[in-house]
Amino acid sequence: MLKDRHGRTINYLRLAVTDRCNLRCFYCMPEEGLDWLGRQELMTYEEMLHLCSVFVKMGIEKIRITGGEPFVRKGFMSFLTKLSQLNGLQHLTITTNGVLTAPYVPELKKIGVRSVNLSLDTLDRNRFFSITRRDELPSVLETLEKLLESGIDVKLNAVVMEGKNTDDILPLVELTKALPISVRFIEEMPFNGGEAHQQTLGWDQVQILNTIKAKYPAIYKLVDPPYSTSFNYQIPGHKGSVGIIAAYTRSFCGTCNRIRLTPLGDLKTCLYGASVFNFKDLMRSGASEADIQAALYKALSLKDLNGWEAEKNNAALASLSASMATIGG
Ligand code: SAM
Predict the structure, then answer these.
(1) What is the distance in A from the centroid of ligand 1 to the CA of 158?
(2) How is 149-160 classified by DSSP, letter by letter?
(3) Protein residue closest via CA to atom 22 of ligand 1
(4) Cβ(67) to ligand 1 under 6 A?
């Protein structure tokens, strides 16, 4: 079992397979996109598979594939199929924007993907365009429909942005009436890949919950699953549930069980922290499995207590314009 220096079990890896994306969400990256990584800079699928197999042997039980948008990287499904066959891996999940995902849903089901996080900030086509700078709402809704048909669990993630989509909170909550999905509202984080580094949060978890409570006063708190990053709620009579992820307030760090790998092979032990080690370089220098293990143990022995400590120790965060697409959201 993997432990960090605070005694927390680490059993969850988030792996970003690309920094590229087919949307341009304004809170994630500039309209012109990012300075995309070159092919040589990215970890190859073989490198990722090797790393994952070592990490799984060490105690990682769950892997979430993210990005960028995973489905824009060529050969993604074939990589995912191989990953799904890793001995000892108990949960394989994906975070996707759903633009290209619908045709792959039957295959996802077949290889054993049991849950998918779908990012969707609004049900209004014009607002979708103004947030993502692309007119792709219909394809995302088709993905939602296909996922529901297939019986794959869906968590719908919406970033709440002052002046942009706070009118969407209630329509999104309304989806839980008939659909067995979890609709989760995420506090906006300061990772927009641009110059202006946002320092304050417009809408926090309290304001989001109060907005929902005003319409649904009978909403009640559910017991959160272990390691949950969301505070979960139920509206009586609704098939689905509602969650709030205090990504900026960072009130869930105490039970942190995760590590992240960026497309470059950088390991991050906290979303707000600096990269602590590069596994791609290590592998390309001919490292053995024992070298990889030693590097991961060392990184975990330095893991920050929480996102506030990590941010304080990450001088780059204040001056550099990080994007969730390069961090691995
Ligand atoms: N492309 C995939 C997707 O859209 O789900 C995976 C990568 S995306 C970076 C992962 C998640 O990070 C999305 O739900 C996105 O909304 C969220 N995200 C990106 N930038 C964010 C920010 N500044 N604050 C909060 N969440 C953010």
Answers:
(1) 9
(2) HHT-EEEEEEEE
(3) 189
(4) yes
Cβ of residue 93 lying under 6 Å from some atom of ligand 1: no
Q: Token digits for 207?
A: 């304001």
Query: Concatenated DSSP letters for 200-231?
Result: S-SS-HHHHHHHHHHH-TT-EEPPPPTT-SEE
Longest dimension (CA), the chain: 59
Counting from 1 in the atom list of ligand 1, the atom nearest the Cα of 27 is 23
Q: Is 247 in the pocket of ligand 1 (CB under 6 A)?
A: yes
Contact criterion met (CB below 8 Å) for 141 and 92: no
Cis peptide before 68 (omega within 30 of 0): yes
Q: Is the CB of 19 under 6 A from ligand 1?
A: no
b/e sequence 168-203, b meaning 16+ C-beta within 10 Å: bbeebbbbbeebebbbbbbbbbbbbbbeeeeeebeb
Q: Of 26, 9, 21, 13, whose CA–CA distance to 198 is shortest?
A: 26
How far apart, in whole angstroms, are the C-alpha atoms of residue 122 and residue 243? 16
| Distance from Cα 324 to the centre of ligand 1, integer Å | 6
> pLDDT tens, 33-90?
999 999 999 999 999 999 999 999 999 999 999 999 999 999 999 999 999 999 999 9
